[in-house]
Amino acid sequence: MRLTFIKPLLVLAVLPMLTACEYEGAAFIINGNKDENISLVREQTWFWSSDVNQAIVVSRMPTCMRRYDIKSGVAGTVKMEVYEAGSSLWALKQGKSWYLASTEKCEFQRWTEPPEEPPGRLVGTFSRKNDRLEFLSADSPAKPIRPADE
User: Which residues are the signal sequence here (predicted)?
Assistant: First the structure.
């Protein structure tokens, strides 16, 4: 009898720990074509660790889709900028790490000698908004800043 009372309490005690884990992804849809995209996937294995495993998925369906592990991140925070670097070529910058992704054949590599300046136009940023991982397009209209005197 006593064991039947303890099991539900253990489940309730463990439940908040499971919800603290981060497991999510977001996609940069290229030219409005859902079959061609670059996704950032984040997986936190243990709730007590701030390390988050990260991967980039490069996809051009039905031709190819590949997943590449990248440097781990920190739970709760993420910022990865995406730049247009050529035809079907994208530069991704997270902190000091730079990567190149090609959607033509779903290729990916770490950029060992990153550029001093961004290689092209910023298309958007993977970041957390409203407690969710999202891709925020750089084309979104910016709100004008008005001087305090007006």
Answer: 1-22
Mean pLDDT for 87-100 is: 93
3-state secondary structure 27-59: EEEECCEEEEEEEEEEECCCCCCCEEEEEEEEE
Rounded percentage of the chain residues whose pLDDT exceeds 70 = 79
126 is a domain residue: yes
**Per the domain annotation, does 121 fall within a domain?**
yes
Burial of 89 (0-12, 13-18, 19+ CB in 10 A): middle
Q: At residue 54, does pLDDT exceed 80?
A: yes
Q: Is residue 105 part of a domain?
A: yes
Catalogue the E-assigned strands of the chain. 23-30, 33-43, 51-60, 64-74, 79-86, 89-94, 97-102, 107-110, 122-129, 132-137
